[in-house]
Amino acid sequence: MREKLEQIRSEALRPLADAGTDLEEIRVRFLGKKGELTNVLRSMGQLSPEERPKIGQLANEVRQSIEDAIKARTEAAKGRALDLKLKAEKLDVTMPGKTPEVGHLHPLERVQREMEEIFIGMGFSIAEGPDVEYDYYNFQALNIPEGHPARDTQDTFYISDSVLLRSQTSPVQVRVMEKQKPPIRIISPGRVYRSDELDATHSPLFRQMEGLVVDKGITMGDLKGMLETFAKRMFGSSTRIRFRPHHFPFTEPSAEVDVSCFVCGGCGCRVCKGEGWIEILGAGMVHPFVLRNCGIDPEIYSGFAFGMGIERVTMTRYGIDDIRLFTDNDVRFLNQF
Ligand code: PHE
User: Fold this and answer.
1) C-beta separation of 128 from 179 below 8 A
2) What is the pLDDT of residues 220-243, one digit of tens each?
3) Which domain holds residue 114?
4) Is 139's C-beta closer than 6 angstroms to any atom of ligand 1?
5) In this structure, are residues 133 and 173 in contact, taking their beta carbons and an 8 Å threshold?
6) Which of 41, 149, 205, 277 is the most buried (most CB within 10 A)?
7) Of 138, 155, 170, 302, which is best to mutate to test ligand 1, by the most ligand atoms within 8 angstroms of its C-beta?
8) Shared-domain flag, residues 164 and 222
9) Are residues 124 and 46 in the same domain?
10) Count of domains forming the chain
């Protein structure tokens, strides 16, 4: 019986050394209710009383060794499965990551913010007005009554006889002066509309930035000094400005203002079309009629105003020759900023 038990032990342990063996099959075959070891134990009755405990002990040892071997194999199999899983799911943190493409500000927005910074630095604050405006604010209060020829140059889109899309940011001057008494020092950036055909230099929708200063003793000299400071900060410290006489119904006297070409410095080149100067804005001293329309006494107060196209400033700054590029949404253009 001793030999039989040793035989069972070796027969059970041999296949357990092989990774492919079915562990459950081994357990049933040797340790199960009808298993080989159980059969041996059942026939123990035939043994002599001296032999019985010795064989019993040996049988227990054999059972224990088979159980241990099965357990060890089970653990090993679990470990291998984990290894495989780790290998398959491994994350290599040294691999270069996928960088998401991050956008940036549109060039117009960027220049607008830069312009705002410059004026805020000179003590201006930002005022806003509606894009959908009354004829009164856009024209009448600005000294442009019905039938005035200035309306032809700023033809816009009408919502009704008295409501339109503003053709300039100047109505914000009136809205601010109605609410606030001097001293006033505001800029007002925003969209304006004109029923112009879209071409390289015209667009039915563009941006302007209005400026308005009203206080006691404001002169044209203040206007000039302030615009010169702006031009130098925006286009470079060697920039000069030039005033040309002009007419706007809501300023008197009025001027168109040019900056010296930032490319050639004034000698004439492709960017300034040989002029040496680039026109960037309209300006003047606020007309007494306009002050009075807003309840400000022109005998006590005076002021200046200016308005410039943000597209124009951006085009001048970067040498862009077609206004349509701003709205084409071509990333090859936009990525250059
Ligand atoms: N609003 C004028 C325009 O659009 C510009 C301007 C503003 C002129 C303020 C003088 C004073 O042409």
Assistant:
1) no
2) 999 999 999 999 999 999 999 999
3) 107-334
4) no
5) no
6) 277
7) 170
8) yes
9) no
10) 2
